[in-house]
Specification:
The chain has 143 residues and is α+β, with helices and mostly antiparallel strands. The chain has one domain. The protein has four helices and seven strands. The strands form two sheets. It has a four-stranded antiparallel sheet. A three-stranded antiparallel sheet has the order 1-6-5. A hairpin with a 3-residue loop joins strand 3 and strand 4.
Length: 143
Amino acid sequence: MKEPEEIATWIRRTYPELIEQTVAAREDVAGAWEGTATEDRGLVVPPLERELEARGLLSAYVELLDALRARTPYGDDQSFVAAPPYVVVTSCGPLLRLTGRTQRLLVRFELFTVEPGPRYRTRRCTGDGVVAVYRQRTDREFT
């Protein structure tokens, strides 16, 4: 597995419960909003991080990264940079990263969209529409 879409498909097939629990956390967070969107980032990121932690998902994401390291060319990179944070909670959802010497593999759980204003809105998708994988080349070598 080395192409982002191939990796995303593997994640969807191998970790459906992780995805379902991530979506459920999104629903719990958005359920506390007045309406279908919010302009308050404080109603998105901190509650999402707390909900993911309470469900044990933050540690599950690290386990997913370990599995990816073992199954992708990114894990063959002996210069792998193990610099935290491996997992961050952003205003769009959890972001996981593997960083090698010259590139990164990013796994994003796309739970929310950020519109101008800013305005945070729930992305109405499940399963295939939640997980996105990107490969990012870097301008410099990490050591």
